[in-house]
């Protein structure tokens, strides 16, 4: 099988103004959004919470947004699911994938 024989399913991401919890689409996705961006912006409170949860890929900033670096896959993605789903950052809560 050649690489061009398979067709990729294209998804489009939307950042909503409200959180989406327990969307069935997220359970079936395999974590595409958790692999598709270089970083996630964090509030200081989210930064502190992820520090307590053991994150090793945080970027602290004195002048801008704090970040969780997710390039090449978020460290909290486990078997295609978010291992900190109840504690995930606001941006993750508001992200919605559409076909």
UniProtKB/TrEMBL annotation:
Pfam families assigned: CxxCxxCC
Superkingdom of the source species: Bacteria
Protein name, as recorded: YkgJ family cysteine cluster protein
């Amino acid at each position: 099988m050649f690489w061009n024989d398979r067709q990729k399913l294209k998804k489009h991401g939307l950042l909503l103004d409200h959180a989406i919890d327990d969307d069935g689409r997220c359970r079936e996705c395999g974590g595409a959004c958790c692999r598709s961006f270089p970083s996630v912006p964090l509030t200081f409170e989210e930064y502190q919470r992820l520090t307590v949860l053991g994150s090793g890929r945080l970027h602290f900033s004195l002048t801008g947004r704090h970040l969780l670096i997710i390039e090449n896959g978020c460290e909290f993605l486990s078997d295609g699911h978010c291992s900190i789903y109840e504690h995930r950052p606001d941006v993750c809560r508001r992200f919605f994938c559409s076909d």
